[in-house]
Design brief:
Protein name: Sulfurtransferase complex subunit TusB
Radius of gyration: 12 Å
Organism: Aeromonas encheleia
Number of strands: 5
Pfam family, one: DsrH
Helix content: 25-40%
Strand content: 15-25%
GO cellular component, one term: cytoplasm
Structural class: alpha/beta
Oligomer: single chain
Order of helices and strands: EHEHEHEHE
Distance between the termini: 19 Å
InterPro entries: Sulphur_relay_TusB/DsrH
């Protein structure tokens, strides 16, 4: 199951909860304010080795670039959902 996180990990515990809930094969998708995690060293370390996708449009909207994971666009997200099924959404 895809774990889809929308909120900044600095404002609530959604990313933390998604990491505890996810199975080893579950992809993690960061979008909206959650994308800030990929530029924070402590989160980059925690997210290493996880199948991680980051919405590129949300990164660019915040003037950020991806340090970890793979950038994803909306068609890519739709394909990922088609492959893995409906996501578990974490949205504060």
């Amino acid at each position: 199951m895809i774990q889809l996180v929308l909120s900044s990990p600095f404002l609530n515990q959604d990313l933390e909860q998604a990491l505890r809930y996810r199975q080893a094969e579950d992809p993690l998708v960061l979008m909206q304010d959650a994308v800030v995690a990929v530029v924070a060293p402590e989160w980059c370390e925690r997210l290493a080795g996880i199948p991680l996708y980051v919405m590129g449009e949300d990164l660019r909207a915040r003037g950020l670039s991806c340090r970890i994971g793979m950038e994803l666009d909306m068609p890519g997200l739709i394909s990922l959902i088609a492959e893995h099924g409906s996501p578990q959404t974490w949205a504060g």
